[in-house]
C-alpha cells in the first residue's frame, strides 16, 4: 500500500496528534466491511482483493496507532524519507540508552517488580515528552534533523518498553 493512503484510508487528515479511540472505532468499522469472510461466496479475484484490502487496512492501522511509525509516515508523506536502520548519531541519547539498559539489567537481577514498574512509568513519560516534541516540530522542514532524531529516540523507547513488558511477564510467572 502506498504510504500516502494510510490517512486517506481512514478518511482523516495527515496529523501526528490523533484521537486513537476514534481511529480504533474507524478501524473496527472498516475491518468489518472489508473482512475476507464477507466475500467467501465470491469469485477468486474478489476474495484476493478482500484479503489485500484487509491486509492494507491492518498495516495502515498499525502505522497510524504507533507514534514512531506515524511520525516516520508523516515525514515520508512530505518527501522527507529517512533510513530507520541508520546508526544513531546522537551521543547524548546513546549514553542515556546505556544507562537505561544497565538500570533495567540491575532491576532484572534483583527481581524488583516495583522498580520495574517505576522504570516503565518513567519510560512512558519520556515517550510522551518525545511525542510532544515531535508534534511541535514535524511540519517545519527547517527542523527535519530534529524530527528524525526524535523518531529514532521514539523507536528505541518502543523497543525498550517492549522488553520491559516481556520482562514483567517472565517475572510474573
TrEMBL record:
Domain J: 5-69
Gene3D superfamilies (UniProt xref): DnaJ domain, HscB, C-terminal domain
SUPFAM superfamilies named among the record's database cross-references: Chaperone J-domain (SSF46565), HSC20 (HSCB), C-terminal oligomerisation domain (SSF47144)
Any one GO MF annotation of this record: ATPase activator activity
A single cellular component GO annotation: iron-sulfur cluster transfer complex
Any GO BP annotation: protein folding
Similarity annotation: Belongs to the HscB family.
Subunit details: Interacts with HscA and stimulates its ATPase activity.
Protein name: Co-chaperone protein HscB homolog
Lineage, broadest ranks: Bacteria, Pseudomonadati, Pseudomonadota, Gammaproteobacteria, Pseudomonadales
